[in-house]
Design goal:
Helix content: 40-55%
Oligomer: single chain
Order of helices and strands: HHH
Structural class: mainly alpha
Largest sheet: none
Radius of gyration: 29 Å
Number of strands: 0
Strand content: under 5%
Distance between the termini: 91 Å
């Protein structure tokens, strides 16, 4: 089996072979891409917020001297409440399209 040459010349030979086969013209064009974060379900986002705040509250209560069991239960209850709050009120409402009918104006 023949080993590819070192120093990157193998890649350049593949590119030259590809350009010779296709006549040196570009076959594929990629347009401008608008980068944005991936779409994540709102329930998953709510759960992640709840987990982050649960850990923050739990370690915070342990740091100030609350006993372990009490800190865990309080952080768990507050984390569940945070999950419900973010799940119910955290989603942004989209603007409704305005109707094109004109309203009757009073004289």
């Amino acid at each position: 089996m023949k080993e590819p040459p070192s120093g990157g010349s193998f890649i350049f030979s593949v590119v030259k072979t590809w350009q010779a086969r296709w006549g040196g013209e570009r076959v594929c064009r990629v347009g401008a891409v608008h980068l944005r974060p991936p779409s994540i379900d709102h329930g998953v986002q709510s759960f992640l917020w709840a987990v982050v705040f649960f850990l923050f509250l739990w370690f915070g209560m342990l740091a100030v001297g609350v006993s372990g069991g009490t800190a865990f239960v309080l952080a768990l209850v507050l984390g569940a409440l945070i999950f419900l709050f973010v799940r119910l009120f955290g989603e942004e409402e989209l603007a409704r399209p305005r109707d094109r009918t004109s309203r009757r104006r009073l004289p």
